[in-house]
Amino acid sequence: MQALRFDAAVDTIVKRDKRYDPGAYFFLKDALDFTIKRTMSQNNGEERHVSGQELLVGVRDYALQEFGPMASTLLREWGVHACKDVGEMVFVLIEEGMFGRQDSDTKDDFRDLFDFEEALTEPFLPKRRPQPAPSTQPAPTE
Q1: Where are the alpha helices (DSSP H) in the chain?
Q2: Number of domains the chain is built from
Q3: Is 60 a member of any domain?
Q4: Could you tell me which of 82, 76, 84 has the C-alpha nearest to residue 24?
Q5: Which tens digit of pLDDT belongs to each residue from 50-99?
Q6: Is residue 50 part of a domain?
Q7: For FRET with 45, which of 36, 77, 93, 127 sits at 20 to 30 Å CA-CA?
Q8: pLDDT for 7-52, tens place per residue?
Q9: Distance between alpha carbon 133 and the CA centroid of its chain, in Å?
């Protein structure tokens, strides 16, 4: 996929569909590349089709790696609020000929794998200290 061709496809997409910022599409392309590289390393260097669920996990992991605690804020700014938004963008890019698909791929592959907000903020929340168990001894009397 040539960079100029992808740029032109994103321009075409955002002119007709304003749900997602152009940055979201470029991020998604990078997250797909990240996911493909990861699956190749787990598959003895062989490239294979990435499922919707694998891509969602890759999107989450790549966002956390690249944007840290700002991942949730940035993706929201781009209009990406849930797993289904990733699926919507994927299928728009498929329609533009930028991404490939298998016959078995559907938008439902991207539905509710995890709570997007929680997945992007949880790693940065302070860890709770375990609370001591309540005492079973009676309170002292005066």
Answers
A1: 3-16, 22-42, 52-67, 71-77, 83-95, 116-121
A2: 1
A3: yes
A4: 76
A5: 999 999 999 999 999 999 999 999 999 999 999 999 999 999 999 999 99
A6: yes
A7: 93
A8: 999 999 999 999 999 999 999 999 999 999 999 998 888 888 999 9
A9: 38
Judge whether 25 and 93 are in contact, CB under 8 Å: yes
What pTM did the predictor assign?
0.85
Cα–Cα separations (whole angstroms), residue 13 to 75, 88, 111: 18, 12, 22
Q: What gap in Å lies between CA 72 and CA 136, rounded to an integer? A: 43
**Pair of tokens at residue 4:** 């100029």
Structure tokens at 69: 């605690």
Residue 139 lies in a domain: no
137 is a domain residue: no
**Structure confidence at residue 127 as a pLDDT band (50, 70, 90):** confident
> Among 80, 75, 98, 97, which Cα is nearest to 29's?
98
